[in-house]
Amino acid sequence: MILLFCLTSPHQLFASPKLPCPCALYNRELYVTKPIIQGDDVWELQTRLQQLGFYKGACDGIYGKNTAAAVRAFQKTKKQPVTGRVASATWKALGEGCEHPDSGAPIADAPERNVSLIVDLETMTLTVMDGDRPIKDFPVAAGKSSTPSPIGEWKIVNKEHDWGGPFGVRWMGLSVPWGIYGVHGTNSPWSIGSPVSSGCIRMHNDDVVQVFDLVSVGTMVKIKAPLTWLVGSLGHTLKTGSNGPDVVYGQLLLKETGFYPYYCDGSYGGLTELAVRSYQMHTGLPISGQIDQKTREHMEEKIGLY
């Protein structure tokens, strides 16, 4: 527990599908107005229009006159109303030609009680696991450097159908304690395979349906990346009650040194403190139960991160 006097668990606080994740911003209608519209959804629009040869300017995330002109040119070729406004019909047309190729027969032989998911941010894949046995890989899109996907070990806390728009045809919310993240479909199929999202894991709509049908609330989802990606993410002392990506990094360091056999869930509770105390005792460090700079650097050096 993060809040000891709260009657609701942190996972319940972040489980409600009524609370929007950052992807909800992608559901906006885009057009030229004042104040000017800007954001990641505009950047993705510009990137796609550039791929298609309609946009020659900088992909700066600002919906200005040049972007609107490119949208009008695109709409004209698709025989849509030439408005310069981007709503659902235009987003759908932008995705034509990016449909996922046939990914083979649906998964049928994985018993639900053994299913887990592994998302590898280095290879941009989601793997369905049956115990220790990989069943099938799917391509994904993940968070960009400014809004990274949450590395760690999570549980699915809710499942929803047909939110549409940027969420595609399925949503699976994750138990990340510092924000709302999920695995979901997309109306931007051209983004699959790239680090472009606001932190969520995107899948082709056909693929996310397969995964959705296999998992249940409580299914484990591990999001992993090389530990070197996280070096430098922990610059202050961690202690009981802390939570966030830096706690995940501390837990991963403890796991690599063999002192933490538990989930790396970003919550600094009693088990994490116990593992830190054990590490400090065995290495001759001051026993505080906190990951301070000296303890962190000792662990990083022990596992050869520098």
Describe the structure.
The protein is of the alpha/beta class and 306 residues long. The protein folds into three domains: 30-86, PGBD-like superfamily/PGBD (Muramoyl-pentapeptide Carboxypeptidase, domain 1, Orthogonal Bundle), CATH 1.10.101; 112-224, L,D-transpeptidase catalytic domain-like (Beta Barrel); 227-302, PGBD-like superfamily/PGBD (Muramoyl-pentapeptide Carboxypeptidase, domain 1, Orthogonal Bundle), CATH 1.10.101.10. Helix content is 27%, strand content 17%. It is built from eight helices and nine strands. It has helices at 10-13, 40-51, 65-77, 88-94, 205-214, 245-256, 270-283, 293-302; strands at 115-120, 125-130, 133-143, 152-161, 170-174, 182-184, 195-197, 201-203, 220-224. It has an eight-stranded mixed barrel. Strand 2 and strand 3 (133-143) form a beta hairpin. The radius of gyration is 22 Å and the shape is elongated. 35% of the residues are buried. The model is unreliable at 1-19 (pLDDT under 50).
Short recap of the structure:
This protein is an alpha/beta fold. The protein contains eight helices and nine strands.
How are the SSEs ordered, and which strands pair?
Layout: H1 10-13, H2 40-51, H3 65-77, H4 88-94, E1 115-120, E2 125-130, E3 133-143, E4 152-161, E5 170-174, E6 182-184, E7 195-197, E8 201-203, H5 205-214, E9 220-224, H6 245-256, H7 270-283, H8 293-302
Parallel strand pairs: 1-9, 3-7, 6-8
Antiparallel strand pairs: 1-2, 2-3, 3-8, 4-5, 4-9, 5-6
Head-to-tail CA distance between termini: 33 Å
Counting DSSP E segments of at least 2 residues, the number of strands comes to 9
Low-confidence stretches: 1-19
* Morphology call: elongated
* Backbone structural class: alpha/beta
CATH superfamily of the largest domain: L,D-transpeptidase catalytic domain-like
**Hey, roughly how much beta strand do the residues contain?**
15-25%
- Number of helix segments? 8
